[in-house]
Amino acid sequence: MNGPLKMYSTKQVVQHDFRVRLPECMYKLKNIHAARNGVVERGTDHVATSTRKLDIFDQVKQFLKNYQNIPEMAALEVRQEEILRQLAELKKQMDSIRNTLKVANHAPFPTVILKPKQETPPSLPDIIINASPTNPPYSLELIQKLWKNYIFLSVKTYTHSSLTTLTENATELTKILEAFSAETNVPKVNVKLIWKDVGANVELLISHQPILGEVNILRYLSRVSSDLLNYETYNNTHEIDTLLDISYNIVKAKTKTERGALLKALSKSLGKSQWLAGRSQVSVADLAAYSAIKQATSPSEVSVSLGKWLQRCAAC
Questions:
Q1: Which one of 34, 45, 95, 305 is at 20 to 30 Å from 234 when CA atoms are compared?
Q2: Are strands 127-131 and 188-195 parallel, antiparallel or unpaired?
Q3: Could you give the CA distance from residue 228 to residue 207 in angstroms, rounded to a whole number?
């Protein structure tokens, strides 16, 4: 704003017998826009007008010059000088320590190789699994082999009263699981496998709340373990989860065409790698897919690459 703002007029309410001198303006302000040669003139009501456009550096420099007598600015300068003094002192101390230790400037830090700590397997409770003889959980066979130096899954099988006989595949898997033996110095987890008519969804009973589905049981076992089956730290966790869902749908598929599309997805994930998801080591996805293919497909549905992969899974 330029100059004082004139006082607005109001209607007179009280009549006096003497003259009242009214102010001519409400208040006055210095004109901060007017300047002369970019220099503030002390003792005037205006700021000089600049003849050129100042960049940000010049504006800050001019501000500090014009307001150098402000107490806050003086205190800030004192604080900055003190910080610079302390940094200089710290540098002298670091140089003295370097000379004492005879360490060259910019010397690289030594490489330290830490050996991985041997983790203690978690303490798992006894496990109860309900499975249908028509859909045997073949993944238990592979887990026993993969965990033989880590945890001994001691499997005992039982037949529910609702069943009269077992299928040939269930009988064969029972013999394999119960005959398996591991190292004597590894922790032991008792697994009760109960053959029961529960359909395609295998049940894992924990705290009276069942975990349904073989792939979900594998997810549980991978999370409570710290070995190679735990895929939570993989950079392709989402792909492993997708493969687990594909394995679940293979068992639930009702037609050969539907299973063929799912098997094609597994072949694409395998590619030219040894294991699914392009991995060089077996993962929980391989276990789930191995069990699903053995449960729900015939040899004629399996491609050559998947057939070789099945052989590698069986030889784990």
A1: 305
A2: parallel
A3: 26
The percent helix, strand, coil of the chain (3-state, each to 5) is 40, 10, 45
Residue 177 pLDDT more than 80?
yes
Give residue for tokens 């052989």: 311
- Amino acid found at 3: G
Q: With pLDDT > 70 as the criterion, what percentage of the chain qualifies?
A: 72
Burial class (CB in 10 A: 0-12, 13-18, 19+), 63: exposed
Give the C-alpha separation, 180 to 79, whole Å.
Answer: 75
Identity at 21, one-letter amino acid code: R
Global pTM? Answer: 0.57
Q: Outline where DSSP puts E strands in the chain.
A: 127-131, 152-159, 188-195, 203-206, 209-212
Q: Are 236 and 277 in contact (CB under 8 A)?
A: yes
**Beta-carbon contacts of residue 136 (< 8 Å; ≥ 6 apart):** 167, 169, 170, 173, 291, 294, 295
Chain centre to alpha carbon of residue 133: 39
The amino acid sitting at 120 is: T
Q: What is the dihedral of CA 289, 149, 186, 153, to 10 degrees?
A: 20
Cβ–Cβ < 8 Å for 216, 139: no
Distance of alpha carbon 149 from alpha carbon 144, whole angstroms = 10
Q: Which token pair is 280?
A: 């060089």
Identify the weakest region by mean pLDDT among 183-187, 209-213, 286-290: 183-187
Please identify which residue in the block is written with the tokens 């945890």: 151
What are the backbone dihedrals phi and psi of residue 139, each rounded to the nearest 5 degrees, phi first? -65, -25
pLDDT in tens, 77-119: 788 888 888 888 888 888 777 777 654 554 443 333 333 444 5
